[in-house]
Design a protein that fits this description.
Helix 2 packs parallel to helix 4. The chain has a single domain, classed as PAS domain (Beta-Lactamase). The chain starts with a strand and ends in a 7-residue tail after the last helix. With about 190 residues, the chain is an alpha+beta fold.
């Protein structure tokens, strides 16, 4: 499989200034069932934080951006961006640009087909309930300290029996957050990551 990358840039104030290959980006957003308008013009000119809602993921990105702007090496962050029918494995790379800007590249590594997961199908009706999914590994939190693969989470919450799927709230599981913070600290002993 040819590796496909999606590249965008932010300025010193974390405003998205550019999307490289807007048509490819729009196509990816549509195939990933982006809620709202997937047109690049609706993203450029907005702070990246408008699209990263949960506290843990935001903190992780802030630490990566701080390192890049301090002149430290780029960090490669593995993550998943699943669709209902497939697991998508990607990596995120960051690169310093002039004037404290940053280029962010998301590259597809591989895909795995699976039976459709209704929880990830944004076209299905939703209940007023929510479940939390990890932004990086796509595990679901079933208890405060317990995260499981999405298919196991569907069984745990008996979602196959429900008429409406719950909404999704994004967070970071302790394993993904901790592993990434440890990596950042190892590369930068002065990192105020905690």
């Amino acid at each position: 499989m040819t590796q496909i990358s999606h590249i965008y840039r932010i300025d010193y104030a974390d405003v998205i200034t550019d999307i490289v290959d807007p048509e490819q980006w729009r196509s990816f957003a549509e195939s990933n069932a982006w809620v709202g308008s997937p047109h690049p013009a609706d993203v450029v000119g907005h702070k990246i934080w408008e699209f990263i809602q949960n506290r843990e993921t935001r903190h992780l990105y802030q630490q990566i951006f701080r390192r890049i702007r301090a002149g430290l090496p780029s960090h490669i962050l593995p993550f998943r961006c699943d669709s209902p029918e497939e697991r998508r494995y990607l990596e995120l790379r960051t690169k310093a640009l002039p004037n404290a800007g940053i280029e962010i590249t998301s590259t597809f590594l591989r895909r795995e087909l699976r039976d459709p997961v209704p929880l990830l199908d944004v076209s299905l009706p939703r209940s007023s309930e929510f479940v939390t999914i990890c932004s990086m590994c796509k595990k679901i939190r079933i208890r405060p300290e317990t995260w499981v693969e999405i298919e196991e989470g569907l069984i745990h919450f008996k979602l196959f029996e429900e008429e409406r799927m719950p909404g999704l709230s994004h967070g970071l599981c302790e394993a993904c957050y901790g592993a990434t913070m440890r990596e950042l600290e190892a590369l930068d002993p002065l990192c105020p990551c905690h």
